[in-house]
Design goal:
This protein is mainly alpha-helical. It has a domain of 59 residues. The protein is 67% helix and 0% strand. It is flat and about 90 Å long. The N and C termini lie far apart (107 Å).
């Protein structure tokens, strides 16, 4: 049996397709595995988070420890862990000193004084006539 060659140079053979499929599968599988440096960075962040939770917990115990029951202490630990989980993306956002706020709270709408004075003058003229 003679092997058939593709009629055009851009046509894909079964062998080429198989090689590309295997390499794409391997690339996808390797992309999901963490690199050694990334794994260490994530454990460092987890350790830092655990230390911060423990520090906040100790601060609460120093302040309110005699008044808290064991159930309340366990609930405080859960709340602190949950709060740290919520704060993680906020802390991960890159922000430099001196960057302005994304939004600015304005209590009053700024009115252009020239527009307001022109409106007053036209209303006076209409009243005089």
């Amino acid at each position: 049996m003679a092997s058939q060659r593709p009629s055009s140079p851009s046509a894909l053979t079964r062998r080429q397709f198989g090689k590309q499929a295997v390499s794409a599968g391997l690339a996808a599988a390797l992309a999901g595995t963490p690199v050694a440096g990334q794994e260490n960075a994530s454990t460092d962040r987890e350790n830092e988070t655990d230390r911060e939770i423990a520090a906040r917990y100790q601060q609460i115990l120093r302040r309110y420890g005699s008044r808290l029951s064991e159930a309340q202490r366990q609930r405080i630990k859960k709340i602190l862990a949950y709060n740290e989980k919520l704060l993680a993306p906020i802390r991960a956002f890159p922000l430099e000193n001196g960057q302005p706020a994304a939004t600015v709270l304005k209590f009053y709408e700024e009115v252009d004084t020239r527009v307001a004075s022109t409106a007053r003058q036209t209303s006076k003229k209409g009243a005089e006539e």
